Amino acid sequence: MSDDPVRYDVADGIGTITLDRPDAMNSLDIATKERLKAVVAQAAGDDAVRCVVITGTGRAFCVGQDLKEHIELLAADQRDALWNTVLEHYTPIARGLAEMPKPVVAAVNGVAAGAGASIAFACDFRILADSAGFNLAFTGVALSCDTGMSWTLPRLIGSAKATELLYFPRTVRAAEALELGLASRVVPADELAAATAELAGTLAVGPTQAYAGVRRSVAYAASHTFAEALEFEAGQMRHTGATEDHVNAVKSFVAKETPTFTGR
Fold it and tell me: CA–CA separation, 108 vs 102, rounded Å?
């Protein structure tokens, strides 16, 4: 474990965010949340990054709120600090991941619980080690849900199943997660890094602005009418149609060549 609870590395167009508190199962204390919020914003605005990966070290992806710190704040009657963290940390982290203009992949190396599961659900893709799983956890400690789970989870698996898993938290193992639609892919644990690198590498050389347009359009359509979604799509088509990638891709198609995308 490094002194930095959240590491950020960039290579070959891929920005990798690594939660690095393995002794605490990558739980989120205030310092870690502050750092994660900053790193997510950095990755979103980093022109050298065309795909983002978020993962964890050790046995867990992220088990959500650091309950040791939580108990200490309760004991000290610092309740404002407890609940302000939702708007100050969890909300911008979720929005940063879900709204950044580039693809995001969660490499789920172990259990993802509570806000840790929410973080994974805010990503485009979730590759799970076969030893990993999700636990929605919140009602187990008599809390509602946060970090966007009320929005992302029903859209992944439907509102009825989402409500069931939120009411009755349990560990959803990797195989079931794949069946339900919580996982994009499940691989043996020792193949997680390679599978993630393969997907992230493909995304990092793809049409980045087109991916961003798709992300925006899908999110917009989830809370707007069909007519409004059509209008929004038209705007995104106009934007992506003005990119260098689109012009070059059409030229390559006509020439029967494989296009090269630069993200511009």
Answer: 19
Place of tokens 């065309």: 50
Task: Transcribe 106-136 into DSSP letters.
Answer: EEE-SEEETHHHHHHHTSSEEEEETT-EEE-
- CATH 3.90.226.10 fits domain 6-204: yes
CB contact at 8 A, 95 and 184: no
Q: Which residue has the tokens 């689109």?
A: 246
For the whole model, what pTM was predicted? 0.94
In one-letter notation, the amino acid at residue 243 is T
CB 127 within 8 A of CB 96: no
From-to residues of CATH 3.90.226.10 in the chain = 6-204
For the stretch 140-198, pLDDT in tens is 999 999 999 999 999 999 999 999 999 999 999 999 999 999 999 999 999 999 999 99
d(CA 248, CA 172): 44
CATH of domain 208-254: 1.10.12
